[in-house]
Automatic annotation (TrEMBL), chain A:
<keyword id="KW-0547">Nucleotide-binding</keyword>
<dbReference type="InterPro" id="IPR027417">
    <property type="entry name" value="P-loop_NTPase"/>
</dbReference>
<dbReference type="Pfam" id="PF00005">
    <property type="entry name" value="ABC_tran"/>
</dbReference>
<dbReference type="GO" id="GO:0015833">
    <property type="term" value="P:peptide transport"/>
</dbReference>
<dbReference type="GO" id="GO:0005886">
    <property type="term" value="C:plasma membrane"/>
</dbReference>
<dbReference type="Pfam" id="PF08352">
    <property type="entry name" value="oligo_HPY"/>
</dbReference>
<keyword id="KW-1003">Cell membrane</keyword>
<keyword id="KW-0472">Membrane</keyword>
<feature type="domain" description="ABC transporter">
    <location>
        <begin position="4"/>
        <end position="254"/>
    </location>
</feature>
Automatic annotation (TrEMBL), chain B:
<dbReference type="InterPro" id="IPR035906">
    <property type="entry name" value="MetI-like_sf"/>
</dbReference>
<dbReference type="InterPro" id="IPR050366">
    <property type="entry name" value="BP-dependent_transpt_permease"/>
</dbReference>
<feature type="transmembrane region" description="Helical">
    <location>
        <begin position="276"/>
        <end position="297"/>
    </location>
</feature>
<keyword id="KW-1133">Transmembrane helix</keyword>
<protein>
    <submittedName>
        <fullName>Peptide/nickel transport system permease protein</fullName>
    </submittedName>
</protein>
<feature type="transmembrane region" description="Helical">
    <location>
        <begin position="156"/>
        <end position="183"/>
    </location>
</feature>
<dbReference type="Pfam" id="PF00528">
    <property type="entry name" value="BPD_transp_1"/>
</dbReference>
<feature type="transmembrane region" description="Helical">
    <location>
        <begin position="35"/>
        <end position="53"/>
    </location>
</feature>
<dbReference type="GO" id="GO:0005886">
    <property type="term" value="C:plasma membrane"/>
</dbReference>
Amino acid sequence: MTLLDITNLKTYYRAEDGWVRATDDVSLSIERGETVGLVGESGSGKTTLAKSIIRLLPDNAEIVDGSVAFDGTEITELTDSELRKQLRWSEISMIPQNAMNGFDPVYTVGQQIVQVIRYHEDGTSKAEARERARSLFDELGIEPDRVDDYPHQFSGGMAQRAMIALALALSPSLVLADEPTTALDVVIQDRILETIKKMQKELNSAMIMITHDMSVVSETCDRIAVVYGGRIIEIADAETIITNPRHPYTLGLRNAFPDINDDDQELISIPGTPPELVDPGEGCRFAPRCPFAEEACWEVTPEPESYGDGHEVECHRADEVELLQTEAGKKETWLEQEIGRPDDPTADRATAEVESDD
Amino acid sequence: MSTGTTSPIDSATSTIGNGIDYVRTKLEVFEGDRLGQIGLATLFVFLVIGIFARPTTIEFLNLTIPGIAPHDPGERAVGGRLESPSAAHPLGTTDMGRDVLSQVIAGTRVTLLVGSLAAFMAVFIGTNVGLVSAYFGGWVDDVLMRITDIVYGVPFLPFAIVLVAILGNSLVNIIVAIVLILWRSTARVIRSQVLSHKQRPYVESAQAIGAGHLRIMYRHILPNVLPLTFLYAAFAVGWAVIAEASLSFLGFGDPNMLSWGEMIYNVYTANAIREAWWWVFPPGICIMLFVMSVFFIGRTLEEVVNPELRHQE
């Protein structure tokens, strides 16, 4: 059953020199209880996409077009107070990137969880809410008595767990996890991810996991959407994205992470930086950095092409999958001078940094 | 709040108990803080003196509490003219033969009144203006900050003198004049602080949780900027007292309410500053002590609302 259905969503930022198309024509649907990973570089628009879902955007951002349907409710048409009372946190909650700053420093963590519960569930007594906060802490592996501590008294990992407790306090149907483990060390990371998965299973919540860490998504997600330049350029189940991707960018991303079984493997990075999203014009957004770009890539924006089992790719050359996969594994392919539009001296190499939304 | 088994009385007593505990934990910050304790003690002494300066009658108890002041501060010729301190008049007498000690004691009331009222009102206005201005931004910010700019352009003394001259020199008008000028600095500082706080992740969390504007402003941002508010309240108390003293010294004080500033004005107009040191120093020193005590307290109060400071030991 579809829980969230995003169709042709366009979220733009007003900038001095025009609209920054941080999310451009994105469609994505999520089932109940499913975990979808959004992977991409900084500035690729993955956070903007997630924040558009609960309309938690800065003042200069605007959902220009498209629809976000949550459980049949059109979110883009709700008034602020409807959104607040009906959806925020009770249905869609968020685990922010840096839990330490996600808590209000002047209240104890327990007070904040109690506030959230009582704000959304009228008639819950303080004592009941407190009891729930304590049992949540217990389930997440924190000493229940620590609900009376202030956020700064928590370690990073513990604060992240407490944030998860806060996010799950109302058993939401959808959790937006914005790089929930980026600030933590690897051992803690793993435990936190396990905890998130376990709790998510129990509550049957769907989750959108935003990250730039391929290993995190491959471990936790059912499906992975690769975001580049404000678009989902490839989406498939986790297995397919890891073992059989078709988009050159996904291939490049995969290269950038080490394989522990292969001692000789050299890390290969994708040259260049994410494109500037002010008036990107026609053509594939990855073309300036793509070693396989052809004439058509510069002229025509590729349409999503389906390769079965929900595997969709936006690439003109996705049919030549064998060639792409072999070539992309070689270091020579990704040398900077080989890339770019050879016959066009005015080619915009897209070096400007995009306004970061992280 | 109460569960099924507790009676209303039980829950009421526990509420009161919790309240006392709460105040106690908040006052813990004064432990081990010498300056804060000195400030608190000084302020307390001034408070007691101010409240019991003159004889008070509690009617329904048919009880009269005698005043601390040995004489009526306005009564003439309780002693000789410009007598230096003696056992009968520990701080000497004025040119009219009034008792200086009694005047200083009676003046405490005015100081407390002006200090607390003006400071509270000024900080209240300033904090709200700053909070609203920064939180909403845009044209709200523009309008409120331009008003603040205008107030910044108004020099205090001429403004207060004109206002008091038009409305009459009563204590209320003096307080109004002080408040109308004093809120500006709080507004500016609170605004800049809120500007930084509204961008912090905890505010975004609060938005994600579904909190509305008022809730975010007053339950999340305000407690975070309260240390500054307290600090500015302390400054404001000191500043208001000094402003009142200056106005009174210039002769615009309330003639019916003798304040420390007015005492110094009287010394000046009696041409007695050079000889009657016992008449000048007591009110001067009192002003200084009072302002100092509120500053010390303000400094300590910073820690109450900032748990992070409290645990850094």
